[in-house]
Design goal:
With 107 residues, the chain is an alpha+beta fold. Helix content is 40%, strand content 11%. The protein has one domain. The chain contains four helices and four strands, in the order E-E-E-H-H-H-H-E.
Length: 107
């Protein structure tokens, strides 16, 4: 937090631009969208929907609402649900890429 003195010195303005939420034990919260540089793991259905929208070329992938609309129209409701529930992870995937989660090993 820092304090600015406006011209004339009639008051102060406090800014909290560097605020990072902390847990009770003072460690940083875990956010999958942190700049770790790892690809985002998604299910095969979600990735198929994202690929279909991207390959259609009808929208910019940064426009999440339009991506959701196109995915719905193309028949990928899983993609629509995933983007709606994980918007920060979606943006991280646009930056770092998406990979398919491997299914649990059955023995």
């Amino acid at each position: 937090m820092f304090t600015l003195e406006p011209p004339g010195g009639t008051g102060t303005i406090q800014c909290n631009l560097c605020y990072t939420p902390r847990r009770a034990d003072r460690r940083r919260t875990i956010d999958p969208a942190d700049e770790l540089g790892y690809p985002v793991m998604v299910s095969a259905d979600v990735l198929e929907g994202l690929d279909a929208v991207a390959l259609s070329g009808e929208t910019n992938m940064n426009d999440a609402l339009e991506v959701q609309a196109l995915a719905f129209l193309m028949g990928y409701p899983e993609t629509v649900w995933w983007i709606d529930h994980f918007p920060n992870v979606y943006v991280a995937g646009l930056i770092h890429g998406f990979v398919v989660e491997s299914p649990p090993a059955s023995e």
